[in-house]
Amino acid sequence: MELLPLAQQVIFYLLAAVIVICSILAVTTRRILRAATYLLFTLLATAGIYFMLDYTFLGSVQIAVYAGGILVLFVFSILLTSHPGEETEKSSKTKRILGLIAAIAGIVTCGYALFTYPWSSTAVGEAQSIQQIGHALIGMEKFQYLLPFEAVSVLLLACIIGAIMIARKR
Amino acid sequence: METPMMYYIVISLVMFFAGVYGFMTRKNMLMMLISIELMLNAVDINFAVFNRFLFPGQMEGMIFSIFAIAIAAAETAIAIAIIINIYRHIRNIDADNLDDMKY
Questions:
Q1: Which of A34, A42, A19, A21 is nearest to A88 (CA)?
Q2: How close, in Å, is residue A17 to chain B by CA atoms?
Q3: Which of A44, A123, A134, B15 has a CB 3.0–4.6 Å from the CB of B1, allowing a cystine?
């Protein structure tokens, strides 16, 4: 993406703010439909992050599968299993404190490990074109992924059949 | 690509542990599933970022992310089918009420 450095910075901070705020709101709000909406914003901002990294194909997959497919499933199942506007039960205080402690301890531990590791990051060059990705996904040589691709397609078929079997009326 | 790698990592770190917090505190199974989605998404960001910044000439991390997204879709579909089935049986999807397996 050829943008001015300043514009890139601004867009990055905007996406970062959306991701951080919406992901925290998604797990703290008590209305479940709102949680799904905040999840949608988080997923779209993640797609924006992928676009900023020049991974346009990954960003499109993120929007199509996550924001388009999974979110629709979520909204349908939320509307099927709860009344609109109903608030979920408040979780107990000890549970919330335990969760908060676990989350903060995890952030501190992982943050310490990440910030003390000597990275040698060099983001240079162009990202791969969609043509290269397509060849990698259906090739049979080294660093090509025909077998996992087919395995995922079989997995999706099994998952469709399984979902129908589980959710059908008896 | 002026933004340093650590900025991206910190975003996904916050997102992941928001998911951990939600998974530990929520009772509603759909909310737990939403938390799992947040965690999966944070891991996908990490794969893409490490690929882009540490190994810019290759695309293994990105392809792993694509497969992870496909598997997350499958997992969500199955989980939602199970949740709807549970709702049909006991009219409730709180994890606390699932202590007996017989209907």
A1: A34
A2: 9
A3: A123
